[in-house]
Design a protein that fits this description.
Shape: flat
Strand content: 5-15%
Oligomer: single chain
Largest sheet: 5 strands, parallel
Structural class: alpha/beta
Strand order of the largest sheet: 2-1-3-6-7
Distance between the termini: 69 Å
Radius of gyration: 31 Å
């Protein structure tokens, strides 16, 4: 039931409103003064306010202004027996949804209130979506505390206020679009549009029209003129994702846009100036595409004014536990359920996996584990076999992973893990004592714990039987 606050100092009018509106399904509260109305709005969540302008000791328009200041999305309908054109104009300027002079009938007020409710719901939804987009673009909400990610964050903050063109290079699923949104959110253009487009999803004729627009009759089916994405992003930022897939013809036109800062719609004869910050993204090294003559060298240099590389997860394994716990919380929030725990042994397997799909693959795997886990804690038995630790896999000569350096890296990491677990087991979880056993400083031990994914809160003071067996095997 929608909650309605009726603000009127006449008890007769309060009763009349209640008689008229109770049949419409409203839950109603009453306030007889401006002070009482403000107290009720602060204390309760209302969907709508019905407000009389004539109130004791206060001007109803002043109350309206204060209500809108406290909650801009709260719709208010003004009613009064002393209606004038001037007061109606003032009420509308101060944010009233509508203005009703007395007397009025039930059908009239019911229709107005229904429309006001609809506007309030729409306004709140728009604000929610805007906040979600802003949060998504906030650099602080990108999960990553590894050295490489912190260096990347510092670079983003340094270049964001400039107008320089940015080239983001990184494998699929590493979060290039999130970083592009963060660049926009940290820039002076943050209040202007952010317009993303994936250059690999559209054939050349449609892509050119999407980017630069077209005039009526430019091609078959062009029954009206269309504004391109560069024009829509005027004053803001455009993300050209998978830019390495652009055809030579579109590459040439894009180069002109970057040089001249103007576009020409398909089929048009006049150019249109645009003020757009360009961020390009690619999952393949553009320099290699230039050397293979698949990408224009002059366009590459225009795009790579500031090249930024987004590292894959296998190069920043210490971020994997953070991502796993982040996605566990996100899934719980979406499902309205408690956050599930993950057993240290299960987390260890996730940390050791190379994640070719990067962050996107981690999110999908966490959702899968949550859906198929029958208990409050995800165990290592529930982790798919293909995510077992690298050292447990069989390497075959000729395999892409078969190299002496890779084998040595895996063996070294496995030995390091076993030594640390043995020291922690010997020291009964006391990290200072474990550091002394290992002949390193406490800070050094902490760095190794983070790198190996052994520093999660769930692990502290808890050891699985498999870990204890592993540690005891080292001691023996």
């Amino acid at each position: 039931m929608p909650r309605l606050l009726i603000v009127d100092d006449e008890e007769v009018m309060q009763e009349l409103f209640e008689q008229m509106l109770v049949r419409e399904g409203y839950q109603m509260d009453h306030a007889y003064s401006a002070e009482e109305a403000l107290g009720r709005v602060d204390a309760g969540l209302y969907d709508l306010v019905l407000l009389d302008l004539a109130l004791p000791g206060a001007d109803g328009l002043d109350l309206l202004q204060e209500l809108k200041r406290r909650d801009p999305d709260l719709p208010a309908v003004v009613v009064t027996a002393y209606g004038t054109i001037e007061s109606a104009v003032r009420a509308m300027r101060q944010g009233a949804f509508d203005y009703l002079p007395k007397p009025f009938d039930r059908d009239e007020i019911a229709v107005v209130l229904e429309k006001a409710l609809a506007q309030g719901r729409l306004s709140r939804e728009v604000r929610r979506l805007r906040e979600a987009v802003e949060e998504q673009g906030n650099l602080q909400n990108i999960v990553g505390r590894s050295k490489k990610m912190l260096e990347l964050f510092r670079a983003v903050r340094r270049v964001a206020p400039s107008t320089a063109t940015i080239l983001l290079e990184g494998e699929s699923g590493t979060g290039k679009e999130l970083l592009a949104r963060a660049l926009h959110a940290e820039s002076p253009r943050k209040d202007a549009p952010f317009v993303p487009i994936n250059c690999s999803t559209l054939p050349e004729p449609l892509l050119e029209s999407e980017l630069f627009g077209h005039v009526r009759g430019a091609f078959t089916g062009a029954t009206s003129s269309k504004k391109g994405l560069f024009a829509e992003a005027h004053g803001g930022t455009i993300l050209l994702d998978e830019i390495g897939d652009l055809s030579p013809a579109v590459q040439t036109k894009l180069l002109r846009v970057l040089q001249e800062r103007e576009i020409k719609p398909v089929g048009g004869t006049e150019t249109i100036p645009v003020d757009v910050r360009v961020v390009a993204a690619t999952n393949v090294p553009l320099r290699a595409a230039v050397e293979a003559r698949r990408f224009r060298e002059d366009l590459y240099f225009r795009l790579a004014v500031v090249p930024l590389r987004v590292p894959p997860l296998r190069e920043r394994r210490e971020d994997i536990p953070l991502l796993v716990h982040h996605f566990l919380r996100r899934h719980a929030e979406r499902a309205g359920e408690p956050v599930k725990r993950i057993h240290p042994r299960a987390l260890e397997r996730l940390v050791e996996y190379d994640w070719p799909g990067n962050v996107r693959e981690v999110e999908n795997m966490v959702e899968r584990l949550v859906l198929f886990s029958d208990s409050f804690e995800i165990t290592h038995e529930e982790v798919p076999r293909d995510l077992f630790r690298d050292e447990e896999r069989t390497l075959v000569p000729g395999d892409a992973e078969f190299s002496l350096g890779r084998v040595a890296e895996r063996s070294s990491r496995a030995a390091e893990r076993r030594a640390i677990l043995a020291a922690l087991d010997y020291a009964r979880g006391n990290r200072s004592a474990a550091a002394a056993v290992l002949r390193v400083s406490r800070g050094t031990l902490y760095r190794h714990l983070r790198r190996l994914g052994l520093d999660s809160p769930a692990r502290r003071g808890r050891r699985s039987r498999s870990e204890k067996a592993l540690a005891s095997g080292v001691r023996r």
